[in-house]
Each structure stands twice: as structure tokens, then as C-alpha cells.
Amino acid sequence: MTPPAVTARDATEADAELLLSWRNDPRTREASRSTGVIALADHQRWLHGVLADRDRMLLVVEQDAAPVGTVRFDHEGAGEWEVSITLAPRSRGRGLSRIVLAEGERILAQRRGAVAVLAAVHPDNAASGALFERSGYREGAPAGNGFRRLRKTLG
């Protein structure tokens, strides 16, 4: 079976409400560092800052022109970037997470010459842990703030 094709595009300010709805989804919040509900005005300020920051990259990943997830990368220095991935609630359970992650990694390597990607995973989030491990991430640093730290070398 051929995996579903996806494409990534840069997020824009017009994506604010869509991204906020995914971020405020209860399952997304459970796995996040910040678990509270975010207000639209706060999210818009955050999004504006992310889009203006050269050390961050926020992509919306689409399948058949419909948004299915988002991948954000934050530069950590020395060619390393931390990844954050969110699937649209309606996209869960369809085998898309690994494809969405791989597309984000491809764009990151192409545009920014990234050497490695780091992932912070809540220990109770078995699905995310399995996603990153299946995608080639390995324990790379001591856990921090209650999160596992996984690392993948690109290339």
C-alpha cells in the first residue's frame, strides 16, 4: 500500500484559528508542555512572533489540499532543531503522523541545512514516543522537565 502523499507549506497568519483549534484540542493539550487552553489573542501574538523569527519554522502539512497537521522547528544551535508536531484531530488514526513528520524534516534539511532534530516527549505519551522511535529518533540527552529527549541525525 502506497503511503498517502502530503505537501508542506509555510504557515501564515490566516492559519491562526485552525492551528489554535488543533492546539486547544484536549488530546493535544495533554501531550504539551503547556496544558492550558490558549485564548485567540494570545495565540495570534504567538503565531506572529513565530512567523517573524528566523530561528523557527512553522509548516502546515496538507493531503489533497486539506490541512492534516503542523510541524514546528525551533533552532537549538549547532545545526540542531527541536520539533513539535500536531495532527488535526480528524487526521488521527490514519497513519499520517510519520508522513507529516518526514515531510517536515525534509523541508527543514532542504531550507536550513539541519544536522539533527530533537524531540521532547511526555513519558505518558506512548504514541508520540513510538512515532519518534519508528522515525529513527533515539534517547539523546537526559530527560528535562519531565519529558524524554530524543534525537535524530539527518542526512
From TrEMBL:
<dbReference type="InterPro" id="IPR000182">
    <property type="entry name" value="GNAT_dom"/>
</dbReference>
<feature type="domain" description="N-acetyltransferase">
    <location>
        <begin position="6"/>
        <end position="155"/>
    </location>
</feature>
<keyword id="KW-0012">Acyltransferase</keyword>
<dbReference type="InterPro" id="IPR016181">
    <property type="entry name" value="Acyl_CoA_acyltransferase"/>
</dbReference>
<keyword id="KW-0808">Transferase</keyword>
<dbReference type="InterPro" id="IPR050832">
    <property type="entry name" value="Bact_Acetyltransf"/>
</dbReference>
<dbReference type="Pfam" id="PF13302">
    <property type="entry name" value="Acetyltransf_3"/>
</dbReference>
<dbReference type="GO" id="GO:0016747">
    <property type="term" value="F:acyltransferase activity, transferring groups other than amino-acyl groups"/>
</dbReference>
<protein>
    <submittedName>
        <fullName>RimJ/RimL family protein N-acetyltransferase</fullName>
    </submittedName>
</protein>
